[in-house]
Amino acid sequence: MKKYLLALCAIMGIFTAAQAQRTELTVSYGGYTQMDAMDCHDGGHDVNTAWGALNVGVNFNVAPNFWIGPSYTFSSTTRKHNSDNKFYYHAIMLNGRYNYYRNSIVTLYCKGGIGTIISHQTWDDSSKNNGYFAFQINPLGAQVGISNVVSMFGELGFGAQGLLQVGFKFNL
Prior knowledge:
- The structure is a single chain.
- By secondary structure, the chain is mainly beta.
- The protein has one domain: Porin.
- Helices cover 13% and strands 62% of the residues.
- It has two helices and eight strands; from the N terminus they run H-E-H-E-E-E-E-E-E-E.
- An eight-stranded antiparallel barrel has the order 1-2-3-4-5-6-7-8.
- A hairpin with a 2-residue loop joins strand 5 (106-123) and strand 6.
- The longest helix is centred in the first third of the chain and has 19 residues, at 2-20.
- The protein is globular, with a radius of gyration of 20 Å.
- The two termini are 37 Å apart.
- 28% of the residues are buried.
- This is Outer membrane protein beta-barrel domain-containing protein.
- It comes from Muribaculum gordoncarteri.
């Protein structure tokens, strides 16, 4: 009976802790990514600059002022003289964020992340994949609350998610 009672207490404790944890969904666009600045296209010199990156992430508030969570980034480009030769970039990263200043209107923070970039190259009837180290370093980020559920944000840094990111956060 004691085992069942302890198991029930443990399950209730885990459920209560999970409910108390705040979660947010982020959606953003980033311009000039790591894939453009570094050789993430298998040594090709005649590659166009990508259009940017679409980023989606989920963050969990694990401690006061500290958030952590996974993210997915998508970008693509082509060769300059052969638009049939395409590159698709998929970045999967684990990000951490620290809020270092907060008032009733704005929150300032820094963010970092590490992970992997999977580059998928296609041409004619062939394709190949390459893997690269992905990172994101944002020493300056600002978030402004629009409502209790939605916030706008902007981040300045460098990495797979972009040099300058703008987007929205949704509190779940």
